[in-house]
Design a protein that fits this description.
about 80 residues; mainly alpha; Non-ribosomal Peptide Synthetase Peptidyl Carrier Protein, Chain A
Length: about 80
């Protein structure tokens, strides 16, 4: 499973109501209100637990709105290690 798929699966199973479809990779999550601030913290915690990257400390606000941007931030920080 790739990074986008893992993040999408987490969001779909842990944060969204059961009747809400999974987000596309480029769907706005936070700025659209689909994910609230607590949901954002949950995603960041998942990324920290799964990939060992603390985006709260090393990420930027651009890393926090779409599945694609979360995944790009993970890849960027994996390469930097």
């Amino acid at each position: 499973m790739n990074i986008e798929a893992e993040i999408t699966q987490y969001i779909t199973t842990e944060l969204l109501p059961k009747d809400v479809p999974a987000p596309d990779e480029n769907d706005a999550l936070v700025t659209s209100g689909r994910i609230d601030s607590l949901g954002l913290l949950n995603i960041l915690n998942f990324i920290h637990q799964r990939y060992g990257i603390d985006l709260i400390m090393v990420g930027t606000s651009e890393d926090y709105d779409t599945v694609a941007s979360f995944a790009a931030a993970v890849r960027s920080h994996q390469r930097a290690k």
